[in-house]
Amino acid sequence: MTTKTGKSQVGKSVESSLIAGTESFNFDLWASQVKRQMITSLQKHSRNSMS
Q: CA–CA distance from 37 to each of 9, 11, 23, 42, 46 (Å)?
């Protein structure tokens, strides 16, 4: 019984860590996309003000 519960606990912890990893990865990806969009929009604004 004890080994069974211990095994299930380990499985749960692995699952939660995997979920957290994917969430952080998605956040990094989203942040990089937002940065790119901000840079492009700033470049467009600077070009408009120059011309």
A: 42, 39, 21, 9, 14
State CA 19 to chain mean position distance.
11
**Which whole-number Å values give the CA distances from 23 to 12, 13, 15, 49, in the listed order?**
16, 15, 12, 39
Q: Give pTM, 2 decimals.
A: 0.42
Residue 29: both structure tokens together: 């990806």
In this predicted structure, the answer to whether residue 21 has a pLDDT above a threshold of 90 is no
Per the structure block, which two tokens stand in for 16?
């939660």
The dihedral built from the CA positions of residue 38, 44, 49 and 50, taken in this order, carries a sign that is positive
Mean pLDDT over 18-47 rounds to 83
pLDDT of residue 20: 65
